[in-house]
């Protein structure tokens, strides 16, 4: 049974801790969080101990860490955990600065520890099945990918200010999806964005709506559209066109109830946010990490994947600022 | 080009006349209707002549008749047209009384003229495709059929009083669908009905809601549910279960527009009534009649089919009155 | 924290034990099963003890029992648990014989203990939402209910022989659904059945396919269709027609992937069997039981509901044998 | 009754002629085509006369022309028809060269004749309903538009060579849709394209797959994806995101039949090509033209719309060649 120390007792930390508790194959021993009461509450709920970073990493029983603290702490914790020889499960992004990502990755490589970056969407059963079918040749050669990814509502402006901006905070998931589904590394990025939802977003130097194109050396292309607000909830859909057909993975709903009345035929809105929509993905993701550590198998999403999605975000940001297509090699 | 005389210039007559005009393979020459202005209007629209029955049937140029007048005139017109040697397209039902249906069918057989009974639903592209797939073995051996058939709203009570009642007026279409899809003649009928929509229906001696079961010698079964009122429009669906799978044919909509908003994800209600829903079926039905006459081929829905659906309606009526399953042989 | 003794370590017992373990509000202390290795395995997995009935019921720490053993043991265990003053969660059916059900219910009433009968479908989120909307008036007055309930495949003939027959073993869930959704007690039942899937079923004195009608004093009606075999998996759908509209709850799928290729546009088959389809329902059901015990609140599905569904099954069986509609009062 | 002369007796000409014949409000008098037998066949079918351009335009009875001949003849015919004072229905594009489009539009303005450019998709009932709802405020302010437009199969390379390329031949419809739905004139275009379907397309100097972005001064954005080949048929979908929700208009199918079997749950592929998918749109488009001429009302799609879509195609072409976003003002 793999023993964990977890950094971060916030919203996403609570999910991982709950999944660890229910997994039957892992145990949560240490919780570390600068917010003492949050750490104590989560530790209490799952029979873990509140520790500090040094103590948690020094514990020889601990085989793995979950890094679910604020983004600015990720890189340092990755480096410390790598030095301590722990397997690493790190929430995305590793860091907002590529330089620090590279430092973290170097530490991981030097230590030879396994590391998974938390691109949870790869574990969503629908997206995973879509990817599996591409691999099985169901639609021939992939030609075009369309990723629709729209949040239910704008986060607080204070959050946006430290988020790294829409591309690094939100689109980063979609860059990972696009790379994964294209089956070929994108070499060029073009991006437009605007603050259509709220002028306060522009005032904070960010955008809330964007459209991005990616292309690969072979000519394959991907499109991503994002908005920070969808009146009907969390809109997460993927469409892949290949030489022999098309695959679509759509939204999930809480119930299949359909109502027909004098107004319309109506069904449920999509599950409202990522906690509900990706609940199953988070559970499967953690189990895949535990399983890969146990078997000494390659991580299903590697540290390099975390870096590469950030590189695409950097290229998009430069494209947005300079209003021109940007070669990935320019920013990598 | 087949030349037609048409009896009846009402709602359904207008549809057939329009389809004749647009067919390119047939021509409408005579319109006969007791309602002079209606006859004149329809004749004028399509370049036909207002005639009386005798003149229309005496015209040697006329090769076929459409009988779309009131139900109580059908049997006499069938007999007269048969004697005149015309091919006959007769709206359902042939008559409300089995005795008179038999007299009409005897005249048709004696004259050796072809006759089609207007079970338009057999020509609906979705139901026809479902039937075709059954024949092609797509779901193996048919075991159970479920017919959902619900009108958008109650007709005038005055109409109900002369309609022959729900089974002979409305369910008769579903009896035909069930027979056609079961692929085996039902031998027994059980029916319950009630006036749930409007007590005035009960006062008129009729029902507006019913559930019917049919079964065949082999054990195959069918269920029909009807209502005279559906708040969301015309509900016409069929479901067939076989040893290797299931086929469903659903409602048609005017547009594919789907709206997602803060309330729900909603799409169009079904097409509102039979004139819209079965517009294509009426067109195909008439073309099939003209084609069968031209080729001397068997009618796709024969006079005997018209009789058999009425027999099932009779059995259902007896079942309703006596609250017991009724063998078809009892009423045939 | 409510402490449980559980009778039965089979397939359904494993589900309940797993849900108890994950609930956080209850604890499994005793496992009782005539199959020693099964009991030991399940007890081992969840840190429980293998006990016998007497010891389990004598334990004062035990507040509640789960009865998930073979059907013929249910009534005796209900009586014993009631006498021991335990809250009772009993899988359906309470017994195949109404006389023994009544004896069990009398014991429960005499002891004043709470009892839930395991009609898990009431806790399926889609069916529960459909029911909630009926109560909220979304479709006005209920008029007709259609329950489609088809198993993926025939169970072993040996099982069928002790199952009590299709109505008491399989349709009993649908009788409960129909009662619950009609919102009025059915007063009359009509049923047809046949062995269409396998003649061995007929040889065993049972049927594998049926169509049932129910009606209430007000004229409301319900239809149930069942088959023991559906090539495409577990087909569980409900449709309710009311004065102001229609509600449908459909099947659940593992993924939303839709594939369009040269053949067709295709999506996933329904979840294959009740363990997957109703996994969430089982979890919610047990939580509702624990919660009702904790709050001293009425059970969401009472012992009387278990009896009434069996009464409808008895009426259906008599209807099938005598080929006539049977008043519920005849068998109650 | 408006009397027409029609130029062009090919595939699209046959559609318009058939719709004229069935319209009841217009009459086809002259057919002009360099292909004599095709002209004679179409004229014969609809009781029209084979004429030459001069004779057709000199006929004072002729009130309107349909220009459905090859693209390189459109501009000259527009000019000639305008000088003859005829109302003009011109298939898209008016010309491949903006200069000649301008000359044609100048002639139309000088003559003061009404002109409709054949963007048939605006008359598709689903797209029209989507547009109507935007206007009615159903989704608040439009923010992003996604147009999916994929042909079932590659046309002959010989056709491609004279087509003007994918943007002017195929995407032009999508440029029109995007403009129409954005509700604001796009000011900038970015486009990537490749020959992914067949290298022969690249050899002919064209592309067969593309992804395009458009943006407006307000920040609104649109995405178009195109392919010349879709294994499952004609894929024509539109998605519009606004401040209060989302509208989607999807593909049309021939039947609603859904088959569930041991493999999957499958439904019909989309209608296979534009002749079937847009049959209704062509009929409504022509009726709208006839109606606007009769009432002296503004054309629902004006000559200027034809020019503006071509301008967007020009901008896309320059963007593709120079791999940079192109301001519409650069090419207009």
From TrEMBL, chains A, B, C, D:
Keywords for the protein's UniProt record, in alphabetical order: Oxidoreductase
Span of domain Gfo/Idh/MocA-like oxidoreductase C-terminal: 133-328
EC category name: oxidoreductase
EC number: 1.1.1.18
Top-rank taxon: Bacteria
A Pfam family annotated for this UniProt entry: GFO_IDH_MocA
MF terms in GO: inositol 2-dehydrogenase (NAD+) activity
InterPro entries cross-referenced by the UniProt entry: Gfo/Idh/MocA-like_OxRdtase_C, Gfo/Idh/MocA-like_OxRdtase_N, Myo_inos_IolG, NAD(P)-bd_dom_sf
All copies of domain Gfo/Idh/MocA-like oxidoreductase N-terminal, residue ranges: 7-119
Family membership: Belongs to the Gfo/Idh/MocA family.
Annotated PANTHER family: BINDING ROSSMANN FOLD OXIDOREDUCTASE, PUTATIVE (AFU_ORTHOLOGUE AFUA_2G10240)-RELATED, NAD(P)-BINDING ROSSMANN-FOLD SUPERFAMILY PROTEIN-RELATED
Name assigned to this protein: Inositol 2-dehydrogenase
Organism the protein comes from: Roseomonas nitratireducens
């Amino acid at each position: 049974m793999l023993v964990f120390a977890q950094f971060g007792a916030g919203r996403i930390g609570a999910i991982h801790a709950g999944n660890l508790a229910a997994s039957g194959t892992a145990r949560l021993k240490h919780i570390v969080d600068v917010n003492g009461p949050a750490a104590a509450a989560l530790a209490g709920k799952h029979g873990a101990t509140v520790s500090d970073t040094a103590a948690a990493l020094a514990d020889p029983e601990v085989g793995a860490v979950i890094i679910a603290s604020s983004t600015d702490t990720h890189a340092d914790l990755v480096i410390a955990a790598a030095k301590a020889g722990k397997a690493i499960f790190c929430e995305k992004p590793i860091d907002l600065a590529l330089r620090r990502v590279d430092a973290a990755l170097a530490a991981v490589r030097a230590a030879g520890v396994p590391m998974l970056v938390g691109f949870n969407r790869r574990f969503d059963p629908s997206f995973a099945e879509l990817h599996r079918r591409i691999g099985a040749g169901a639609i021939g050669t992939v030609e075009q990918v369309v990723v629709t990814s729209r949040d239910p509502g704008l986060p607080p402006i204070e959050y946006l200010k430290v988020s790294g901006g829409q591309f690094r905070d939100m689109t980063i998931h979609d860059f990972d999806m696009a790379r994964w589904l294209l089956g070929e590394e994108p070499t060029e990025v073009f991006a437009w964005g605007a603050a259509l939802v709220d002028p306060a977003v522009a005032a904070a130097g960010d955008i809330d709506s964007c459209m991005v194109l990616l292309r690969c050396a072979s000519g394959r292309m991907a499109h991503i559209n994002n908005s920070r607000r969808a009146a009907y909830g969390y809109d997460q859909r993927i469409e892949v066109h290949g030489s022999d057909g098309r695959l679509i993975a759509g939204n999930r709903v809480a119930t299949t109830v359909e109502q027909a009345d004098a107004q319309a035929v109506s069904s449920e809105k999509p599950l409202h946010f990522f906690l509900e929509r990706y609940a199953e993905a988070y559970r499967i993701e953690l189990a895949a990490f535990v399983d890969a550590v146990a078997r000494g198998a390659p991580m299903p999403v590697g540290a390099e994947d975390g870096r590469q999605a950030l590189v695409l975000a950097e290229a998009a940001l430069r494209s947005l600022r300079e209003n021109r297509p940007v070669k990935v090699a320019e920013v990598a």
